[in-house]
Write a structure and sequence with these properties.
The protein has 61 residues and is mainly alpha-helical. The protein is built from two helices and no strands. The longest helix is centred in the N-terminal third of the chain and has 24 residues, at 7-30. The radius of gyration is 26 Å and the shape is rod-shaped.
Length: 61
């Protein structure tokens, strides 16, 4: 005999599995640790200060 399954449960289980797969792919693409974000922010701020320090000041009033 064939096993009787609840179609609603099967549908919900399939949707949940798809959502988990999508979430895993998004974590791989977009997920970064706080240390990575902070390191990038500090590097960006350092580069901005470096560029600002090398700008020329013109006194053409």
């Amino acid at each position: 005999m064939a096993e009787i399954i609840n179609l609603n449960r099967a549908r919900k289980a399939r949707q949940k599995a798809d959502a988990k797969a999508t979430a895993k792919a998004n974590r791989a693409l977009h997920g970064r640790s706080r240390a990575d974000r902070d390191a990038q922010r500090i590097g960006r701020e350092r580069a901005d200060r470096h560029i600002e320090g090398h700008k020329r000041e013109d006194d053409h009033d």
